[in-house]
Design brief:
587 residues; alpha+beta; Heat Shock Protein 90; formyl-coa transferase, domain 3; 3 domains
């Protein structure tokens, strides 16, 4: 069969198949062009999910007549001034979007650069350019999408589903540029210069207010990475990854390295089937990342993916691990010497003892929910050095810890405390479970050297995949090396771990081949520690006395990731007294 060059219209339609998958793809390409043109206000209108009409209007720089003529030809771009594909600082750069869209629709462009006496319009069916009364920026109207390729048209989903995909694209671009205003169908509005936190609330919903943790970390490596943005508290989560917004050098991406790092960072504070919310912005030198990977420009390749992943995991873990104590100390609250000493080094008690045998000052402490007595006399018993001080002075100097002062226990499950006009409810099991888990994490993994190595036969590609992450596996207590081309030998393993190591390593290999990394052993270690912590902590239904409850609260205040147990359940909840007043119509 003879070799021939395909006609231009067919080349454009093939390119359109890569770039223009659905109406949302068209919106993405056109809005990215508007952003690259310097627009700070973009108006998008979509009719019938994008089938009938897609209109994008911006107030960017606009084009001259000659630029407009070149813009609809293949591989024409204004975004590679030095022809360096490793130094890309724009959203778009391929020069395929406009001719590809034009090949599968009826497209017209109106533009004005503010210098010419008039604007210009091009009809992409005839490529005729004529004067226009358009006065500023650019308007692109895409009608009858895929009408020229009906086989593609029948694969589109319903109008509502396509509209939701368009909205998701606009949200991601709005998150990428909080300094730009976006309006979609005159219904969804994102205000110009509203700030990142306000933009997050506009995009993700009002339930994120006050529950996002800020982040701004600079790496110490030679790459020079910076990670900034916001992540959700572990108790704020979604059933899917819909509210995970990840950006590399300002570009929205869906990258396996970033997604895997985010999952690993939340592994011991959130259930595996739940997802945190985030708006994370990773900035690094352009020569350390390749954005020229896919036609849709949603994937990237990192020069050093392992360093990027470890930097993100450490940054997020450090932020999630911040305890309550430093936050309170920043407020410069008055602390009495006695209570300061107790707060810094609280007394350790065995929470497994019988509560009726535990006494303070030879008197049992009431712990039943029905006995809501004033706790200040009991506090003086707990801190005997304060006896004899002026009671009024005592109240003004007393330290108010983050979770407040213990009042009692409800149902032998929940500790009730009071703090700054808030009732604080603490799940005693979840609190002690987190404390126990964090203590276990500080211990070095006990390993068992093997007199005879465990040899596991594997495919050659699986051996290469496992050996590529041998250093990571070593950190989890598993020392191994290749045993020829088609086998792996384990020389040391975590003590008391009776696992099917063949199945484990084959699963590791599959994950490495798919994602470039593996968290299999880390997840198994987390599960083992979590189960041990769960079975060796204060149980729901266990009666505690006041001093035990107070010690538990003081300990959780100093514990990392204290807001939730290692299964992701909340540890404590603040209920404003004003909210309780509303229950009883005390308005």
């Amino acid at each position: 069969m003879a070799v021939r060059v395909l006609p231009e219209f067919l080349i454009n339609q093939i390119a359109a198949g890569e770039v223009v998958e659905r109406p949302a793809s068209v919106v993405k390409e056109l809005v990215e062009n508007a952003l690259d043109a310097g627009a700070d206000q973009i108006v998008i209108d979509v009719v019938d999910g994008g089938r009938t009409l897609i209109s994008v209007i911006d107030n960017g720089a606009g084009m001259t007549r000659d630029d407009l003529a070149r813009a609809v030809t293949r591989h024409a771009t204004s975004k590679l001034p030095d022809d360096d594909l490793l130094n890309i600082n724009f959203m778009g750069f391929r020069g395929e979007a406009l001719p590809s869209i034009a090949s599968v629709s009826d497209m017209t462009i109106d533009t004005c650069n503010g210098v010419d006496l008039n604007g210009w319009q091009i009809d992409c069916n005839t490529y005729e350019i004529r004067p226009s009364d358009w006065q500023t920026g650019t308007r692109i109207r895409v009608k009858n999408l895929f009408a020229k390729t009906p086989a593609r048209l029948k694969f589109l989903r319903g109008d509502r589903a396509e509209m939701m995909s368009v909205l998701e694209v606009v949200k991601r671009l709005a998150m990428a540029r909080p300094d730009v205003g976006f309006v979609l169908n005159n219904k969804w509005r994102f205000v110009k210069d509203e700030g990142l936190l306000n933009r997050i609330e506009s995009v993700m919903g009002q339930d994120v207010v006050g529950r996002m943790l800020d982040l701004n970390v600079q790496s110490g490596s030679t790459i020079g990475m910076n990670l900034s943005g916001f992540v959700s508290e572990p108790t704020l989560r979604r059933a899917s990854s819909v509210d995970q917004y990840l950006f590399v050098n300002g570009r929205p991406v869906k990258d396996k390295v970033l997604v895997g790092a985010l999952r690993a960072a939340y592994m011991d504070v959130m259930h595996a089937r739940e997802f945190p919310l985030c708006a994370l912005y990773l900035n690094l030198p352009t020569n350390a990342v390749d954005v020229n990977v896919s036609p849709a420009k949603t994937e990237v390749h990192f020069l050093e993916p392992t360093h990027v992943r470890s930097f993100i995991i450490k940054s997020l873990r450090d932020r999630l691990a911040q305890t309550m104590v430093p936050q309170v100390q920043k407020n410069n609250l008055a602390v009495s010497p006695v209570e300061s000493k107790h707060f810094a080094n609280p007394t350790r008690f065995d929470f497994g003892i019988k509560t009726d045998s535990f006494k303070v000052c030879d008197k049992p402490i009431a712990t039943q929910f029905g006995n809501f007595q004033d706790v200040r006399p009991i506090v003086r018993q707990v801190f005997p050095d304060s006896v004899g001080q002026n009671p009024v002075q005592q109240e003004t100097e007393v330290f108010e810890p983050p979770l407040g002062r213990v009042v009692g226990q409800v149902g032998n499950k929940y500790i009730i405390a009071y703090k700054d006009n808030n009732m604080v409810i603490v799940d005693q099991h979840a609190a002690h479970e987190r404390i126990t888990y964090e203590k276990l994490r500080t211990h070095k993994i006990k390993t068992q050297p093997l007199l005879s190595p465990i040899v596991i036969d594997m495919r050659e590609e699986d051996v290469m995949a496992v050996i590529s992450v041998a250093d990571e596996l070593k950190q989890s207590g598993l020392a191994l090396d290749s045993f020829g081309d088609t086998a792996v030998a384990i020389f040391e393993k975590p003590a008391d771990w009776d696992l099917d190591w063949g199945a484990v390593l084959r699963s590791v290999a599959e994950e490495v081949r798919e994602n470039g990394h593996s968290s299999q052993l880390n997840e198994k270690l987390h599960l083992k520690l979590a189960n041990w912590a769960c079975h060796h902590s204060v149980r729901a239904g266990q009666k505690l006395d006041l001093l035990q409850m107070d010690t538990l609260l003081r300990d959780i205040e100093k514990t990392e990731r204290a807001g939730q147990c290692n299964h992701g359940r909340p540890v404590y909840k603040f209920i404003p007294i004003s909210e309780i007043d509303s229950w009883f119509e005390r308005l």
